[in-house]
Amino acid sequence: MFNLRLNSNVLRLAAAQALAGANSVVVYATSAIIGHLLAPRPALATMPLSIFVIGMAAATLPVGLITRRFGRKAAFMFGNLCGVIIGLLAALALTVHSFALFCIAMLFGGAYAAVVLTFRFAAAECVRAEDRPKALSTVLAGGIVAGILGPQLVTATMNLWLPEAYVITYLAAAAVSLLSAGVLLGIRFDYRPSAAKTAGGRPISSIIRQPRLAVAMLSGVVSYMMMNFMMTSAPLAMELCGISRASANCGIEFHVVAMYAPSFFTGRLIARFGAPNIILAGLSGIALAAIAGLSGLTVHHFWIALVLLGFGWNFGFLGASAMVLTCHALDEGPRVQSLNDFVVFGAMVIGSFASGSLLTEFGWPVIAGLILPPVFFAMIAILWLKGLRPRELPQL
């Protein structure tokens, strides 16, 4: 169990994850629709979402620098500022019908999402070493609330100011960012940056040569990139297969629940069986999702694939995050964590841009089949790591 004060910190981070994560859900639910309304050409309709992912990747290293220099809370406040800016800029873009301004807003939204994903590492700094996996999963469980709050926010506000749909939605998202900032202000960290600490630690070149870190980063890249690659293609694939939009939306809802619901027990499983074994289970789930996608084109094949994909992502991504925490000392954390996230989200950019064109050119079976080689490669890397003798793995 967490002690009372530190448990309060973790719960605040989980609540902030729920509030801030709702902003990302708003983007995923509306950006393609708004892009279709504002873009000069239909082919550019999904560009705002791709720019959102670019914003995530581009912000990871600056966020790590802010954390090292000024502390976690300064990075959190920077993120919430970006959350307010995306809401205000997107609302303005809708009012003046500017596609370019809406895309700029998405950059800030991606930066906000990048900061939100550091909450899982911040939670690990609030607990004892043995409780870190549980802290990671507790914070990520806030995504369940985000998955509910985001769509409800869109439904309740999208038509409040016609004819400019979604203006109030993004203003409400800005307000939610302010509420999240208020929740985060109450967090107290034992760790404080100092000149000595920010300059200390091993050289980053030495840290990244650790086999454990290399495999952890590979596992995070494969888990997140393959999930994003398959998930972003699924709604359009279902439409091309003649499946109703309501059924497609239901499949995405199942997927989001499967992504975050296991977080209530993933941390305990990591603590009991070890991060490498949980990553293997996650990668197996993603492989099964690909096999389900190759097995047929009915609505049930899509649903089963999306549920397996969600479970696989949760185990793979949380397991990889927990393994990253074993590869650095406390004062090295912001540098290593931001580098890890930069690599993971940079790979997501590739998947985000590639999935749509590959789907329209080659079809859903090719999308599902392309999942398998990277997953098998990551599984081999995990098995190789498990086969190393303890003395071959550098200890902190």
TrEMBL record:
Keywords of this entry: Membrane, Transmembrane, Transmembrane helix
InterPro entries: MFS, MFS_dom, MFS_trans_sf
Domain of life: Bacteria
Protein name: MFS transporter
Domain Major facilitator superfamily (MFS) profile: from-to ranges: 212-396
Native source species: Dongia soli
Transmembrane residue ranges: 45-67, 74-93, 99-123, 135-154, 166-187, 213-232, 252-271, 278-297, 303-330, 342-360, 366-385
